What we know:
The protein is mainly beta. The protein folds into three domains: 47-145, Immunoglobulins (Immunoglobulin-like), CATH 2.60.40.10; 150-249, Immunoglobulin-like, CATH 2.60.40; 252-347, Immunoglobulin-like, CATH 2.60.40.10. It is 8% helix and 48% strand. The protein has helices spanning 2-18, 31-41, and strands at 47-48, 54-58, 64-73, 79-85, 90-93, 96-99, 104-112, 119-129, 137-145, 150-152, 156-162, 170-176, 189-192, 198-203, 210-216, 223-233, 239-249, 252-255, 258-260, 273-279, 289-293, 298-305, 307-317, 328-335, 342-347. The strands form six sheets. Strands 2-9-8-4-6 form a five-stranded mixed β-sheet, with no helix packed on it. A hairpin with a 6-residue loop joins strand 24 (328-335) and strand 25 (342-347). The longest helix has 17 residues, at 2-18.
Amino acid sequence: MAPFRFAFIDRFVRHNVAFGASVLVLLLVPPGLSFWLSERSNAGPKLQLPSAPLHLGNGRPNEVKTGELELKNVGSSALEFRISASCGCMELDPGEGMIAAGNVQRVRVGVKLPSYFNSGRSVQLRVSTNERDSAPREYLVLAECPGPVNVLPMGVNFGTLRENEVSTASVNLRVTTSEGLSKLDPEQMRLRWNSEWLLVTRHRDDPRELQLRASLLEGLPEGDLYDTIEIDVVGSGGVIGVPVYARVVPSVYIAPSTVFLRVNPATGRFDEAHVLVWTTDDRTALGALLAVSAPEGITVSDGVEGNEARRRLRIGVASEPVWGPDGQVEIRVKFEGIDDSVPIKLTKPSKERST
């Protein structure tokens, strides 16, 4: 009977495949084989980490918050591990080692909080092991340092400013508490900052909060500027730090900003020099040339170059100027819509550049 049944199934399969029908093959796995496959999936070392991040809770500035991270080896052989952290504020004990199959290693974790209130740590741990074909595993450790008052925004970012925009730049901050400032005397808050280009003033239009205004002073140097506004709440035992950033760029760019003059050997006269001037964003229209401050015998004229945001200056030198000790003279030009004048340096020609 059995040979006949298998022969019938064989003819059924061949018949259906020949006519394009789908064939469903069901594999019935015996219980013993299922257990063997499960055991085989855990062959070798296998790391198991907690599913949720490790939160060490709240602390005070510079406090070290501690906790335990549990590493479990659910594999069938010894697991070797090494842990690295994304922040030097992290302590790990042990940071590496070996875990026997089925055992657990508890790692002491310590995180030093920042020196300011209203801050925290979010540290990424990277656990490397000897598991076969397994990439390093990542795990998150968190700690918070809440302050006695809330400051919004938490940072002051003036962004990129042109020189003529500095005097109008300001950012408002709101200082509040969850219980309202009736529980806190604003006069007990001390404000500090380090730079001479920053000014912070306070006013209180709303009795429920204190308003601060951060503004910039004129005459800032070009480049990236950093500072921190420190809000010291008397009796709190700590300081709230509000980072400040600004980037100051020229109102216009000049290329070249230093012009090397040449003398035409055929005529013995200075060649005309050309300088390109454009606005910082290369889109805002650059006004006409209004004024030139230059030694006698030097003239400057301008014209539009391609679009209204660019102008080409033509510098003519009719007679030898009085050169400075560095072999240079400076001229300054001013454009409509730009508050400051722009310097251009002219360099005395050398014999090599004049031939």
